[in-house]
């Protein structure tokens, strides 16, 4: 299993007949969509890939759903437990069957959703459907196995804490957020991870609460017989009858003053500098997520004046970047610099601040905005060369937006962004009272 750090569910009528949605300029492949009576959304994408199929299961639960005190990190932890077996297929048997067909099989958890994915021969699709339906309906594991895996997750945390990125994420999130679960990382608070071996009973509650058909979308992409696949899907997943729990996610109050946080990193690495502003949740009915996607490239991409000045000309920084991927709830838009030398921190901060203020003043390069929009679209299309690529992109956007066509609609929104919207967005959100600044200074020397 691996973890990726780096778009409301459209409910179709029960037993909706499959419909082929025509290709659009933004997404070139038709989606066949059914929703079973139990709420499971099943999306099939025929793709010219003789003998190959990708199978993605999206469960819309992530660390944002961890609202109980002392129970952070469970979405990620439970991803591990989903590989532990059932009465029909005890632990290890699923792995052997999947390996016998040659499937590449894995999973990942984000703040907003969890994805299970397999990629391999169409000849093994029937077996895979039965295995997947069985574990999502009938997962079983004993307390000793649970405790063992909890220790493995603790080991994963210890491995990650040797990197400055985890500490940066923890400290930035904990400073910028005071109430919302985004204040902890997907791994969770360290004290909660240490206490996980004692939470066996809660783990069963977590499974019943979130692993439900009405909170899950399947994406099957590649070479397969659609009618045969749907017959088996209905047979295997049809009896799955749990219902999604209603749990209130705390709303983060407005930030009213600038916040700062600092990390003294105990070993050698390069200094870091991060500016982060609170921004709206992703939605397909507004252009907020699309604006932020364009803004990330506009301010920190390789065609940006910041990149030209800081990376190419003055060579003060090794890299600049922006965290802009869509999130289900209000989150952060960041500008991050990896500095070559601590002495240039103030100058880099000034350059970041100047670029944001220039944009807010109304100075915007229309031609570059249009070029960025085209680059986002064509860059995605170039990445859709295999069923696994298509499955990943569709799954990611479905996890955020909750609808099978989230990817196409998000791309359509990006194409509609107007240059003046970048200006108004910067004026509204990139204010000092909405800003959190994180700085990281390494041990003497400041070199990796």
Reconstruct the topology from this structure:
Blueprint: E1 16-21, E2 31-35, E3 41-46, E4 52-59, H1 74-81, H2 93-101, E5 104-109, E6 114-121, H3 125-138, H4 143-160, H5 164-176, H6 190-195, H7 200-210, E7 216-222, H8 226-237, E8 259-264, E9 272-279, H9 288-300, H10 305-313, E10 317-321, E11 331-339, H11 345-360, H12 366-382, H13 387-401, H14 406-416, H15 419-429, E12 435-441
Parallel strand pairs: 3-7, 8-12
Antiparallel strand pairs: 1-2, 2-3, 4-6, 4-7, 5-6, 9-11, 9-12, 10-11
Helix pairs in contact: 3-8, 9-14, 11-15
In summary, what is this structure?
This protein has helices at 74-81, 93-101, 125-138, 143-160, 164-176, 190-195, 200-210, 226-237, 288-300, 305-313, 345-360, 366-382, 387-401, 406-416, 419-429, and strands at 16-21, 31-35, 41-46, 52-59, 104-109, 114-121, 216-222, 259-264, 272-279, 317-321, 331-339, 435-441. It has 15 helices and twelve strands.
| CATH secondary-structure class of the largest domain | Alpha Beta
Order of helices and strands: EEEEHHEEHHHHHEHEEHHEEHHHHHE
CATH homologous superfamily identity of the largest domain: Metalloenzyme, LuxS/M16 peptidase-like
Helical fraction equals 40-55%
Sheet having the most strands: 7 strands, mixed
Determine the structural class based on helices, strands and strand pairing.
alpha+beta
Assign the CATH topology of the largest domain.
Cytochrome Bc1 Complex, Chain A, domain 1
CATH architectural group of the largest domain = 2-Layer Sandwich
Query: What is the overall shape?
Result: globular
Number of strands: 12
Can you count the helices? 15
- Provide the residue-averaged pLDDT: 92
| Proportion in β-strands | 15-25%
Rg value: 23 Å
């Amino acid at each position: 299993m691996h973890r990726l750090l780096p778009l409301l569910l459209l409910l179709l009528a029960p037993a909706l007949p499959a419909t082929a949605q025509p290709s659009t300029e933004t997404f070139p492949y038709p989606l066949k969509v059914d929703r079973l009576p139990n709420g499971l959304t099943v999306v099939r994408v025929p793709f010219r890939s003789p003998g190959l199929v990708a199978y993605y299961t999206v469960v819309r639960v992530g660390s944002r759903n961890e609202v109980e005190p002392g129970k952070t990190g469970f979405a990620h932890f439970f991803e591990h437990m989903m590989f532990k077996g059932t009465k029909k297929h005890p632990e290890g048997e699923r792995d052997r069957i999947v390996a016998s067909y040659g499937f590449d099989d894995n999973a990942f958890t984000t703040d907003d959703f969890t994805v299970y994915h397999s990629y391999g021969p169409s000849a093994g699709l029937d077996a895979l459907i039965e295995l997947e339906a069985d574990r999502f309906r009938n997962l079983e594991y004993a307390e000793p196995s649970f405790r063992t895996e909890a220790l493995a997750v603790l080991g994963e945390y210890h491995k990650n804490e040797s990197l400055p990125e985890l500490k940066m994420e923890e400290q930035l999130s904990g400073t910028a957020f005071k109430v919302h679960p985004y204040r902890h990382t997907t791994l969770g608070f360290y004290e909660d991870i240490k206490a996980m071996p004692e939470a066996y009973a809660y783990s069963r509650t977590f499974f019943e609460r979130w692993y439900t058909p009405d909170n899950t979308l399947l994406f099957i992409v590649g070479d397969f017989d659609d009618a045969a696949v749907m017959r088996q899907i209905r047979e295997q997943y049809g009896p799955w009858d749990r219902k999604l729990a209603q749990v209130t996610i705390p709303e983060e109050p407005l930030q009213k003053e600038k916040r700062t946080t600092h990390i003294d990193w105990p070993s050698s690495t390069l200094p870091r500098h991060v500016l982060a502003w609170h921004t709206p949740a992703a939605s397909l009915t507004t252009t907020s997520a699309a604006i932020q996607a364009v803004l990330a490239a506009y301010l920190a991409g390789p065609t940006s004046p910041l990149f030209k000045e800081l990376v190419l000309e003055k060579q003060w920084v090794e890299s600049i970047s922006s965290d802009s991927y869509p999130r289900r709830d209000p989150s952060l838009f960041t500008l991050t610099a990896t500095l070559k030398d601590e002495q240039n921190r103030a100058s880099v901060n000034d350059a970041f601040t100047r670029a944001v203020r220039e944009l807010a003043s109304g100075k915007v390069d229309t031609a570059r905005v249009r070029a960025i929009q085209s680059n986002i679209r064509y860059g995605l299309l170039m990445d859709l060369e295999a069923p696994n690529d298509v499955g990943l992109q569709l799954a990611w956007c479905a996890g955020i937006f909750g609808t099978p066509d989230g990817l196409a609609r998000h791309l359509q929104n990006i194409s509609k962004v107007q240059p003046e919207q970048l200006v108004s967005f910067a004026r509204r959100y990139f204010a000092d009272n909405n800003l959190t600044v994180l700085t990281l200074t390494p041990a003497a020397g400041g070199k990796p």
